[in-house]
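During the second year of the project, the team shifted from modelling isolated chains to modelling whole assemblies. The rationale, set out in the original proposal, was that interfaces cannot be judged from single-chain predictions alone. As a representative example for this report, we include one of the complexes processed in the last quarter. Its constituent sequences, exactly as entered into the pipeline, are reproduced here:
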Amino acid sequence: MKRQTRRLDRQPGEVIDRGSPLEFGWNGRSYPAYAGDTIASALAACGERVFSRSFKYHRPRGLLTASYTDPGCIVQVGDEPNVRGAHRLAEPGMDVRSQDTWPSLVFDVKAANELVGRFLPAGFYYKTFIRPRPLWPTYERVLRRFSHGGVVSPDPLSPELSSYDKRQVHPDVLVAGGGPAGMTSAVAAARAGARVMLVEEEHSLGGHLRWGDKADLAALHDLRSLLAASGVEVLTNSVVFGRYDHNHVAIVQRGLTHVYERLVKARAKTLVVAPGLIERPYVFAGNDVPGVMLSTAVRRLINLYAVKPGDRAVVLTANPQGDAAVVDLERAGVEVAHVVDARGGDDLVRVLGRGGVKGVELVGGHRIECDLVVTAVGWTAPLTLLTMAGTVAAYDSRAARYFPGTATLPDDALPAGGVVGDGTLDELVAHADAVGREAARRAGSMSRREPAAEIPALPVDAHPELFHGPTHGIVDFSEDVSSRDLLTAVEEGYSSAELAKRYTTATMGPTQGKLESVNVVAIIAEATGRTISQTGTTTWRPPYAPVTLGALAGRHREPVRYSPMHPWHERHGAAPLVAGAWIRPDHYGDPAGEVLAVRKRVGIIDVTPIGKLDLRGPDVPKLLNLLYVNRWSKLEVGRVRYGVMCAEDGVVLDDGVTGRLGDQHYLMSTTSSGAASVWEWVESWLQTEHPGWQVHVTPVTTSYASINVAGPRSRELLGRVVAEIDLTPQAFPYMHVRTGRVAGVDGCVLWRIGFTGELSFELHVPASYGLHVWETLLDSGNDLGVRAFGIEAQRILRLEKGHLIVGQDTDGLTQAFSAGLDGLIRLDKGDFVGRSELVWQAEAAAESRLVGLHPNDASVVPEEGSQLIEAGVICGRVTSSRWSPTLHRSICLAQVATEFAEPGTLVTVRLPDGRSVPATVTEHLASVDPEGARLRG
Amino acid sequence: MAETGVVARSPIAPAAPEIILAGWAVSARRSGAALTVTDCTPMTKVAIKAAPVGATAERLEVPFGRVSRQTWTLGDRDCSVMVVGSGPGEWLVLGPPGSQVSLIHQLSTLAGDGDLVAVVDLSHGRALVRLTGSWAAEVLAKETAMDLGDSVCPDGAAFRSAVAGLAADVIRDDRDGTRSYLVGCERSSGQYLFDSLLESGAEFGIEVDGFVPPDI
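Output from the structure prediction step:
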């Protein structure tokens, strides 16, 4: 195992727990770490300097920022690709590997790309690998070998990586950023009575105070104590990645025990954006050589992780933070060979070395040997969330950074801290405290009579504008875009920030511009002779940081609906049919046998999903007359009537039967798939067009378990389980309804209706007793040969009977006359929905009709949807088609052009396999018992 | 032979052991966990629809979005019932299991002159689940976008919204100072709702607790 040769003695602010050592693997070798180490800090403690290879040229890369945004340490952890190694905590047994390197990180063959770099400039793919076109598949195979990123296993991911969920929160104040400004704002808002959530991307709060001096650490301790007592909900290791309309804020939370990631959707009344400042790299030759780091990187490594970042350093500094890095380096035992003070005009020319820093060359040619180069040349304000809220970023050349334009910010978003200005810690805290109080006031947490908090302005320190040195270097470390690439883009006409971005892919990598956007704009501005303000920025859109698709998708959630008899279906081998959200029994192994059982004896089918609406009130007949094409005013108590609904364009919408159970009490049934839409349709007409009608509608689809008992012996079977109802044909004729007790269960509704063409009864039983009634029927009818039948058998039976199915034998254009419903439509009954279109259809004659069809070769069962063709013209289609076990032949329903709808007409069916077969239009839709004697018995 | 007598069954499979209580097959499991979920489907549930403003609304005394515990005389006994203002002109009355007949009779007398009132028994048409514990709001926050904070949804509040992707009624009904919610949906999705809450509550150590009537 490797040794921690670069681990320093205990540091005052270190976050590692030396009492909890652990081991993990890096490229197959074992490395030690402490709890609290990141993967990168643990590797750095063992002297590792190279963690990855760059995107295009496969140059060795090391730590740059040692933080969440570090582009040089993207690694594969087990099955998980693209892990931010400078942020992910090391865990025992972790298997960490470099990405996209072959055969190894140390010796990567793809580094040969650099040898042909002149053929791979920015936008090379627009100019190369295009001709000859027949070679495209080869180009694709080659280029795929060079695509960057980690590996996702084709096998199912481990549960740890594949579980996600979501959470909705409604804080009064959401604070994005857990540095001193964010912490102070959160505490102030909570004290003002607000519900506050504070989100921080690092593993602990404190921002730059964490790697600061003694005073900073003391201030951090105080802030943490205040926060702990404040009731603020804190999410660390979490990123606010988007601010959408009306402060709908999206957060990805990590480091959870039960799920890999959680998407937290927050509806915040006020958003405080306190992201601090991000240190900017300097562009010069060799700026990506391992060992070149930002000042904040070395301060993090030393103070948080007790890691000595090098032995001999050269520091380029332009600000007090760079000066502080010098102090920390010397305290850590790093020899500071030279300080290049940019404020005095000094500069770096290039870094010497390739696999690691060997030295630097200064302006004037002087070279200094070193293994560490530290730069502190400026700050970038991450304004992304504020621009999402509507601010327009304004560049201040005196401070060399962008600031948010507060005039364009909505009232519900407030910036705080470094994005607004500089100042001492006390000034920062006073400012942030006022922001927090004002955020609470705007959220309504304080009395509306409270005056707006006066937010003290923060001073803005001057800073030299330092973006690049006298040589070309890497601008976008993630995308391997150099300053030379940007100049090439400008030369080729892509001179705006937006165009240059798209042409070079600068700012499009995992860092999303946080490290490079200002440098990009500055270089383009210089090349085009404009100022940075004139050049403008790219548009910062969500997500602020990359988000997994899993987090966005969340838990696999698919509502499913079961009938009360479902346990019986499962136990008896029903093949499940997914019908919308319902799971229904398609068949029990022998649909043909089920059909014959119904035709010859008795069968029962679970039809619970049939839509049912309870209608009460004196104006129900008006409603039925309005929505159905037939008459309803004289439906007597105890009678049932079939009805068809049309939309306003006369297109068939739904069908079903409605029974009158009492003077002002009706039970309407709908198709299973139309249950919800018909309810909405009914309510829409009542509430918007006839609010004065006295009707109450209550959906009762699942209040009843519905069972259809069908077959010549159905009456006999029912007689064994029904009490208090006379089932004789005289007492209980076809299309009548009764209520009573079935199998000892009160409150059951029985309809004498038929869909199968046989004598049948439809039972609606209080759903909690559905299974009992179902099993009682089966037990009671053993000697009668009772058998359960499924949806497939029902479809065959109804097709034999010629009953249409709305949505199967009709479509979105089928008006009622085309569905063969002539006998039902009452154009003389007064206005109803769809009437005017149907009058027109009646006058113009329907263009098509629903007909019965028998293929002349009875053994041919055309596929549903097969076209009917005459004289080379499509004249219809097969809507339903099955083999009839009753008739031992194929039977169909079809929509056909009216001129071919006469019984006896020969039509041609074009089968999907290309064959054409003749078929004859039948006299009736029904192939079995067209007169209906069986079901009226 | 049929494996069931005339026993009512919830859409939610009872956690073992199963017993028959008040004519329902329920779970006899008892849990002392800090977060529990209970199938309360056996409770009587009766829907009333009437004019939002009128005699019936006055007599029920519960506005839209609120819940009231009341004592009604059902038959010859005083029973606790819960009256929920579940929608404009819509109420849901929850009562002890098996009290439909007396509840419906009682409610049918509410209508004033000219007041159309529909009283519909939904006891078998709705699944009802109770979630109880200090983490109850956190569990529900994974399933619904509604603001469950005390200022918006205090004890005694009711709302109708999407929960686990289902149209559901939610009633906040704290028990002995502990946060508790009743969540109701149409019956056929009851098992799915129950399973969703169990999955969401797993990180808080949720357990199934059996139904103890009358649970009002």
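Chain B touches chain A through 50 residues (CB under 8 Å). Chain B has a mean pLDDT of 93.
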